[in-house]
Amino acid sequence: MRPTPSCRAPLAVLVSLTLAGCGEVAESFARTVDATYSPSSVTVFAGSSEQVTLTVTCADGALDTAFGRLNVEIKIDPDNTLPASITTSVSGDVSVVDGFYRIPCRTPTSTPNLSTATLEITLVASTAASSGSYVVPTLVRVEPLTADDESRDSTIVELGLEVVPASGAFGTELLANPSFELPTLGSGLPTAIGGWKGDLTSGVQTENGIAPHEGSRMLRFVATGSVGSTNTVASQQWQIVNTNAYTTALAGQAYHLEGSVWVNRIDAGVSTDRRFDVRLLAFDGPITDFATRFAAATWLEAQTASVDSVSDTWQLLSVSLTPPAGTTYVVMEIYAFEDVVNDSDGTEFAGHYADDASLVFVAD
Ligand SMILES: [Ca+2]
Ligand SMILES: [Ca+2]
Ligand SMILES: [Ca+2]
Fold it and tell me: In angstroms, what is the span from residue 342 Cα to ligand 2's centroid?
């Protein structure tokens, strides 16, 4: 999914493209470059690291010159506002010119004339890093035509960074968007940390006589497919947690993970499905392998809890898992299950909700 460019006034006469989603002020995307971080903020324990992805969006025509296509250049923390105890690095074969990471921007998008480039960035907080909230400013610009030239366009994107003391590993909420106050991240299996992803759901306020368990919004399970009803029986949401980031903080201690989620559903008659499940799945290897590993059911360990729910009642589903040696990430999976009638079209779930999830490390 292409990040939505900000709706800003043109800095120069560059390109004009129609974009959806920005309202009346957004008739044109007149920037040459824009950028977003995913996730937009991260928590890093002192003595640990976390990886984020910077996605740069470029207007194709404005990068082309008589001398060839210009690259984009990225400088993290250009004014050195971060303390020395917080450092960054990038992975992959990236050239560095005058302190800028220089990368080509030519991965096509579904929007004509817009391309993207991505940079995987690792944030490291040393054991000396002070706890607190930080902002990681990042300058993204078009490569200047010559060393003396100004860049054609530039932008600053900010990453939120929360540094937590190593001792805070126990009890800190590991999930992003645990209470579904924010939208989920769309369809399909997740490929990165930062939120829930999966089958068709919606974020709703009080409806059908059921109020959220916490906050003002809750998750509604809509269908077992990513776009609608199918002959399958589980409407699933997954979230990846990078437990590897806590290795240093948890070294030498005995612990397990406790996951939980509240579930509720209406009574729409005898055909109303009743079952909800939560699973914790531990994996080794890189997070980007999750879809493959999940499809092959090659997790290191899984723990499941299930409930035959009572209507119009919030019920807590809890599950615990001790990550086996070698675990690098854990996935929390929640789902509503068609245990009464497997509809293959039409309405699969009459009114089935989840809210107020949690995943924490607990000392044994
Ligand atoms: Ca909520
Ligand atoms: Ca079905
Ligand atoms: Ca059903």
Answer: 4
